Amino acid sequence: MKNLFYIFMLMVTILAVASCKQEPKSQQGEETKIARHVDCDEFEKIIANKDSVILLDVRTPDEFNEGHLRGALQIDVKTDTFRKTCERMFTTDKTIAVYCRSGFRSKTAARILSEAGFNTVNLKGGLNKWVEVGKDTVR
Length: 139
What we know:
The structure is a single chain. Helices cover 43% and strands 14% of the residues. The protein is built from six helices and five strands; from the N terminus they run H-E-H-E-H-E-H-E-H-E-H. A five-stranded parallel beta sheet has the order 1-5-4-2-3. It starts with a helix and ends in a 7-residue tail after the last helix.
């Protein structure tokens, strides 16, 4: 009887692990891309390729005007139209590199954009970390 219990528990464990490895699905049942979350040095390398990357600041306009990364566009992730605006403005053939103040809102933005089919990279630690490590911003 004990052996049957152990076999049952092993099967449950295998099924649980296997289900965790499945790719996330969008609401339409299509596979979504996974956002990458990278440190400042990696983010800097990625955004240097201006031909294939869109740099997106997802903070408010006021925050953006206080300082941002050179060449960044600004779309507030907290607006109801964030996803639709991005889908209208951008194509999925370019990577969207997102950042915010601390990395929390940009993580949300990266998830939304990935679910919409965009290849997305998020700056871990946000603009705060960027400035902390001595990288430049503009006003």
